[in-house]
Amino acid sequence: MAAVVALFVITLAVFSGTVAADPDMLQDVCVADLTSGVKVNGFSCKDATNITATDFFFDGLAKPGLTNNSMGSLVTGANVQKIPGLNTLGVSLSRIDYAPGGLNPPHTHPRATEMVFVLEGELDVGFITTSNTLISKSIKKGEIFVFPKGLVHFQKNNGEVPAAVISAFNSQLPGTQSIAVSLFAASPPVPNNVLTKAFQVGTKEVEKIKSRLAPKK
Ligand SMILES: *[C@@H]1O[C@H](CO)[C@@H](O)[C@H](O)[C@H]1NC(C)=O
Ligand SMILES: *[C@@H]1O[C@H](CO)[C@@H](O)[C@H](O)[C@H]1NC(C)=O
């Protein structure tokens, strides 16, 4: 599996050379100083004398994530926030686990194209183009699917066993906007009269969705 992931990252690195999402780097390494108050496009660099192998290491994708939540899925990021050494390198990974019936709900990544590689199980996946066409497919263990940068996409485990994927991104921090949560659980809230008109429903329906998606206290 490690070899597969490595191949994946290399492929993505080559790919991102021609379809760069993040800006190109200007030095060998710029390990993120995540505690620095200095604001730049990315993170400011740690002092070179303080860089260690730990800055380039993460074992957080080794085990399945817990999927006992309302969506039945969990995304575990392996981005610059977890691996400071990724700062300025323009790549990252995630692991996504899905319970049977689990959904990674419709969302977008504003800064990256995503490729998923199925580790276990089967998924129904899709994205929607700006001309409003759904491009969808069922994928299984060992298969890959691509979600183009910025387009709304989802993955659903319609199987009877858990599923898992590794996702590769051409950004150190792809960012995620989950459509339902962005619209119905923003803080401060999006006004009801925006949502009733957008979705062509009444205030009651909007409030019901808002209450279901409200962050758990
Ligand atoms: C290196 O890290 C140590 C411990 O975090 C810190 O005290 C020190 O100031 C750092 N050195 C430089 C040059 O940034
Ligand atoms: C999920 O399972 C874990 C471990 O079994 C437990 O600690 C946690 O509270 C559960 N979370 C929910 C939302 O049920």
Automatic annotation (TrEMBL):
InterPro entries: Cupin_1, Germin, Germin_Mn-BS, RmlC-like_jellyroll, RmlC_Cupin_sf. GO terms for molecular function: manganese ion binding. It comes from Vitis vinifera. Keywords: Apoplast, Disulfide bond, Glycoprotein, Manganese, Metal-binding, Secreted, Signal. Residues 1-21 form the signal peptide. It is found in: Secreted, Extracellular space, Apoplast. Its main location: secreted. One of its GO terms (cellular component) is apoplast. Disulfide bonds join 30-45. Belongs to the germin family. Oxalate binds at residues 104, 109, 114. GO terms for biological process: plasmodesmata-mediated intercellular transport; regulation of root development. CDD domains: cupin_OxOx. Mn(2+) binds at residues 107, 109, 114, 153. Residues 64-207 form the Cupin type-1 domain. This is Germin-like protein. The keyword Transmembrane does not apply.
